[in-house]
């Protein structure tokens, strides 16, 4: 008998099962727990697509068990206990629907001028908001001491403290944003206006810091086609590196259109109206890059004009690049001491070795001691391949951000 359900999506498969003859048990004859277990494999979009089928499936799709799971999937290492200030986990997921990728990726770096910036995006369970703060590193003390092996060599003290700059938020999304309040109002039974489903690539951000005179908007980004990405960076190209962000020195799944870092700091009109600049629907959105547009407004809101406008592009790092393994122990995000130029963040990239037989397990010989096996492991698995340091932030007078600081093989 031919399989007529091959190649169809999960939602279509559920709908198809409803049409099966009543001579054998159907989907709704299963225990509720089994139905929920089946639906736990669906994505949020698929759960929403299942709701219009019938009332029973709508009730299962709206079950908070599924939405709790999807919220936690976007908060690695932060197992929150309550959907506060929302009533349900589903409401919380919808409130931050377009921004969950920010907390899922957590670490972001940008092309702001030539110095760059790193931010950490997190979810605050107390207020139900997503917020991002700049990551800073400072020295705890200055000075040096002579090296015991050679007293003519002095080793500088370096015990940095890494912390968030909590006095100044970079991005913030609240549950009670104007966008969410309008959506809730239009979705209420008393509303006479049916909510329209439109995609907006740019969203206003309301800062909780009333003294901040800046206006900010969050702009979704569109990945560049592979053929538009230069395979080798041009050393003489205008920043940021052939108009691409992140630069080719940093491995990335998505790269987007960048713009020159100048005094004005804003992209040209031709650039922002380019079809490669921003997405037109959800399928075109990059979840590894985004932009923030900021400005100050002179005069009344109705007739005021923008001054000091800038547009900054952010990108994340794949966790595999900074997560150490027994074979790649130096992977990570490190703090470097650049003397009078201060502390800077570097990505120590230790790429996998592409050699025949390297990925085969190392088997301990019967005659080997622990020290001999460890020595052979280090020689054959660890001390192999390339090691490079790429600045994520940096003083342009030393080495600009997102350029190689050093490399060894």
UniProtKB/TrEMBL annotation:
Keywords: Ubl conjugation pathway. Gene3D superfamilies: 1.20.1280.50. It comes from the Eukaryota. Residues 24-70 form the F-box domain. InterPro entries: F-box-like_dom_sf (IPR036047), F-box_dom (IPR001810), FBXO31/39 (IPR045048). It holds the Pfam family Cyclin_D1_bind. Pathway: Protein modification; protein ubiquitination. Residues 193-212 are annotated as: Disordered. This is F-box domain-containing protein. It comes from Xylaria arbuscula. The lineage of its organism: Eukaryota, Fungi, Dikarya, Ascomycota, Pezizomycotina.
């Amino acid at each position: 008998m031919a399989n007529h359900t091959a190649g169809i999506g999960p939602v279509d498969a559920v709908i198809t099962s409803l049409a099966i003859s009543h001579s054998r048990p159907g989907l709704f004859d299963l225990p509720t727990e089994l139905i929920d277990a089946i639906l736990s494999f669906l994505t949020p979009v698929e759960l929403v697509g299942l709701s219009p089928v019938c009332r029973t499936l709508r009730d299962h799709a709206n079950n908070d068990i599924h939405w709790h799971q999807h919220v936690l999937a976007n908060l690695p290492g932060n197992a929150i206990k309550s959907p506060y200030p929302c009533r349900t986990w589903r409401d919380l997921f919808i409130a931050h629907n377009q921004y969950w990728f920010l907390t899922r990726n957590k670490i972001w770096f940008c092309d702001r001028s030539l110095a760059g910036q790193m931010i950490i995006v997190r979810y605050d369970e107390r207020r139900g908001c997503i917020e991002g703060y700049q990551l800073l590193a400072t020295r705890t003390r200055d000075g040096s001491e002579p090296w015991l092996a050679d007293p003519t060599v002095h080793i500088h003290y370096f015990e940095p403290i890494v912390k968030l700059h909590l006095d100044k938020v970079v991005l913030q999304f609240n549950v009670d944003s104007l966008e969410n309040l309008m959506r809730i109002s239009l979705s209420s039974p008393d509303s006479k206006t049916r909510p329209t489903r439109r995609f907006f690539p740019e969203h206003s951000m309301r800062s909780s810091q009333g003294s901040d005179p800046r206006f900010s908007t969050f702009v979704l980004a569109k990945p560049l086609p592979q053929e538009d990405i230069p395979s080798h960076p041009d050393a003489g190209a205008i920043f940021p590196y052939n108009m691409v962000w992140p630069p080719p020195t940093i491995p990335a799944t998505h790269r987007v259109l960048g713009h020159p870092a100048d005094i004005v700091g804003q992209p040209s009109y031709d650039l922002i109206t380019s079809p490669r600049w921003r997405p037109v629907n959800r399928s075109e959105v990059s979840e590894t890059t985004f932009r923030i547009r900021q400005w100050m407004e002179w005069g009344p809101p109705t007739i005021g004009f923008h001054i000091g406008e800038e547009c900054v592009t952010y990108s994340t790092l794949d966790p595999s690049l900074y997560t150490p393994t027994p074979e790649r122990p130096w992977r990570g995000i490190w703090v470097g001491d650049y003397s009078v130029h201060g502390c800077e963040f570097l990505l120590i990239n230790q790429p996998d070795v592409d050699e025949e037989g390297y990925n085969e397990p190392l088997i301990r010989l019967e005659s080997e001691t622990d020290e001999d096996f460890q020595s052979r492991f280090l020689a054959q698995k660890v001390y192999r391949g390339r090691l490079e340091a790429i600045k994520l932030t940096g003083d342009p007078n030393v080495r600009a951000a997102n350029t190689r600081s050093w490399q060894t093989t």
